[in-house]
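yo, YibE/F family protein is done. seq:
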Amino acid sequence: MPRLSPTGAAHPEPGRRAGCRATRHNRRVPTRPTPAAATRTRRAIAAILLPLILAAAVGMALTWPHGEASTARTVEAVAIDYPSATVTGTTQEQCEGTVEDRRTDGTIPTTVDCLRVQATVTSGEQRGQEVEVWATAGTTAADVPAGTRILVEHYPATDSDSEVWAWHDYDRTLPLVSIALLFVLAIVLVARTRGLLALVGLVLAFVVIGAYVLPALLRGENAVVVALSASTVIMAVVLYLAHGLSLRTSAALLGTLAGLAATTALGVVAAQWARLSGVSSEDSYRLSQLLGESGATSLRGLFLSGLVLAGLGVLNDVTITQASAVWELRAASPGATRRELFRGGMRIGRDHIASTVYTIAFAYTGAALPVLMLLEIYQLPLGPTLTSGEFAEEIVRTMVSSIGLVLAIPLTTGIAALVVTRSGAAPARHAQPDGHAHAHVHTLGDPDRTP
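structure:
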């Protein structure tokens, strides 16, 4: 009851003063959505998602690679084995200089230090055989002490040539397998079943890329259709597998597909506008030569597909986070309107945008550090360097992926706010001493705004 002053004016009670927005009584309490409303929402989501997933499956079927890929040059298989070996000793010798030993001034030294490595083969038909190989340039005796595991190349003897052994690389099987097991263990221990299902989805995603995307691009199929079809199927599988079949996951999937469509459209326009051919490095040039007449088309498609696939992981991260944020806001404030849920979700999304854009930019920067070091050494002009093909591709890939990511956040937030209010959470109910219950409706205020 309000307190009356001596003059008869009513004063608000201490808990009723203006500016107190934590809990308000006597407001309209939203009703719990009926099962029929929830069912209609699920049907509406299914009516949107199922045709999209079906269209992606049809796209994969129409562009599925058949037969052998035709190349301009024949790549003949060479009889070669890669057995492992254990180093037993090394010998430092003088060898004739080659192009691998070229100095910074362009000259090739007459003689250079070379390292002859003695090793015992530990796998394959030649197990136990003692061999000698020349280590690659720059390798010292300290790099390959006795007991080091290496891989060697074995060229069997033919009618015209004798048997040849050569250095291939270090045997990194043990450290790589150990790190991979540690990765799996950390995910399963922290995320448990959901983490395990995410790993299964990751394996399935790489199966799609290896069995469909790469062969289809090699055969000159439409890169946009291949990228969108594969990405849609991958996202549908990994999202539902890791997060379960729910409206929250469906809202995140809708936002992801919207972001993928935006990224693909921007990528096509940017690639044509910037005249990106896909032939910007030694490896891509060699691949173009192998593909012949279809090389330019295939490499341009390879760039577009790489642009779409590169942003899948980050896009999935932000969309599922935004959908979960809206659901949690709804659970904390069942009386919030769609507008309030959207605004609350976007406050979270803006923070996510800032950190995720850094993630994309620094990931590409880290991968390009060797090239950046060359630029530092040669002191090339900044403008022509950044607009060259190799850098232009990375810049376009980073910018387009970031734009698609930024657009996906409000799209996902809006979709999630719409879905959760049509099917969503009931208001929290607290028991009273008399056995009755009343509803508390919490509003979503801006934490950065002064009351």
